[in-house]
Amino acid sequence: MDPTIEKARCTECDAEILLSTTMETGGLCMPCFKQMERVTSERQYSDSLAVSAHFHPGFADDLTSWETSVYLDGSVQQDINWYTPHHRRKRELRTTTITDSQVDEIVNAIRGIDLNGLAAIPFCVDDVEIVSITSPKLNIDVRTSPYTFEYFARTEKLPDGAINGILSFMHAWKTIDGLSPYTTSEHAK
């Protein structure tokens, strides 16, 4: 590689990559990114899965990401992929149990996502944090950036339908996040 070009390391395999590539791939080299896309698209979800939510940090100093899986029996599993100077590429599994009413609260929040409103968002800023929510039982697979709402609030008007879409998505995400072992609040510390 040209020594004048800024470089980074793949968060998965530690290969040297162009710094500009990390914005597109969340810190992964192209082979690891393609593998992640393939595994995600081929994933077979358990019949007992209520929802799976993924947090991807986008282009940030701390590239820690995680997947939270909430099951109908109230078990919650969280696979955290740490990325800090102290925990480079370390993975951790955290678990907890929530009540039936909390599972219902999450499922109702997912049902409440305004899919048409999300579709009305003109674009998504792709180099910031991204949250995806998947519920096979409810046939929902959506992703957006919590930053989208803040961005449009500062720069231009969101279409009316999009406001409800992003707010309902954020409500669902905050419900899942608030009942998870590792939260965005803890991550921000």
Walkthrough of the structure:
- With 189 residues, the protein is an alpha+beta fold.
- It folds into 2 domains: 1-42, no CATH class; 46-188, Mago nashi (Mago nashi protein).
- The protein is built from 7 helices and 8 strands.
- The strands form 2 sheets. A 6-stranded antiparallel beta sheet has the order 6-5-4-3-7-8. A two-stranded antiparallel ribbon has the order 1-2.
- Strand 1 (7-9) and strand 2 (16-18) form a beta hairpin.
Layout: helices, strands, pairs:
Blueprint (H helix, E strand, L loop, with lengths): L6 E3 L6 E3 H7 L4 H13 L6 E8 L8 E7 L3 E7 L9 E7 L2 H12 L3 H5 L10 E6 L4 E5 L1 H10 L4 H19 L5 H5 L1
Antiparallel strand pairs: 1-2, 3-4, 3-7, 4-5, 5-6, 7-8
Helix pairs in contact: 3-6
Principal-axis shape: globular
Our Rg estimate from Cα atoms comes to: 17 Å
Please tell me the CATH architecture of the largest domain by its name: 2-Layer Sandwich
CATH superfamily of the largest domain: Mago nashi
* Name of the level-1 CATH class of the largest domain: Alpha Beta
Number of strands: 8
Report strand order across the widest sheet.
Answer: 6-5-4-3-7-8
Largest sheet: 6 strands, antiparallel
Helix content range of the residues, please?
25-40%
Which class best fits the helix and strand makeup? alpha+beta
Supply the number of structural domains.
2
Assembly type of the chains comes to: single chain
Mean of residue pLDDT values: 79
Query: What is the rounded distance between the termini?
Result: 36 Å
Number of helices: 7
Order of helices and strands: EEHHEEEEHHEEHHH
Annotated CATH topology of the largest domain = Mago nashi protein
The unreliable regions are none
Strand content: 15-25%
